[in-house]
Protein: Phosphonate ABC transporter ATP-binding protein
Amino acid sequence: MLEITQLCKTYATGDTALREVTFRVPRGQMVGLIGPSGAGKSTLIRCINRLVEPSAGRVRLGDTELTRLHGRGLRQARRRIGMIFQEYALVERLTVMENVLSGRLGYVSFWRSFTRRFPGRDIENAYRLLDRVGLLDHADKRADALSGGQRQRVGIARALAQEPELLLVDEPTASLDPRTSRQIMRLLREVCAERDLPAIVNIHDVPLARRFVDRLVGLRAGRQVFDNAPDALDEAALTAIYGTEEWHTLHADADGVEDAPARPARARPVEVAS
Ligand SMILES: Nc1ncnc2c1ncn2[C@@H]1O[C@H](COP(=O)(O)OP(=O)(O)OP(=O)(O)O)[C@@H](O)[C@H]1O
Structure:
């Protein structure tokens, strides 16, 4: 369980990015974080892993209050948080397998990490993860030889190699075509369910979020203005999050006939584009 309590952030410039944001993410739940540009989505993700220092409030992961930690304690806690990024953040010249194993770097000794000699169980687990994300046949390829969707699968396998207790996912599909985006969102949803992992996914594409996440949190100017099931995201809620002008310009993705919906029929996406 992740618990965010009255989280506030005002940058040194005076910009207030978060205003008393409070919500909990139970294990196994994937929360989509939506809101217009500048609403505070990235700041919230970064305050959770303390890449940005919150001005006030608390973040708790299981029994650990992350907002109290410093130095070694913070580094150890960060190992429990898997990060997945828009631009994949892979080491291009390393193989797929080496990139997945880099998720273990925080756990092995300095010498092992320096020589890249990982324990056998880490290597076996990395093969299992590559199989899970559909890349077993690509283990020895260099990362720069992969497609965008394949790279994101490596990013997911690397995050899972950490054996995280939480996934923070920042715009995972922003560089991908609609069909690959759906496949990545489906994979994220499946691995969260399989591993009982809480996840927060910062995502601009509202129809895609609505289709795949369990719950949506909407931010506007740092305030949490929506927190509900995707089905509850009606016109009034979209207006509260995006304002009257902006929400109907959000692009609806063209639903692919080749992809069966991952969510039950009652939660089918509602088109928001006219
Ligand atoms: N390093 C920083 N220094 C000062 N102000 C910042 C900094 N980072 C973000 N902000 C401000 O905080 C507010 C929230 O920004 P943030 O990047 O968290 O929004 P966002 O919802 O992630 O936007 P986007 O969808 O465009 O990425 C904005 O007003 C932004 O200008």
About this structure: The chain has one domain: 2-250.
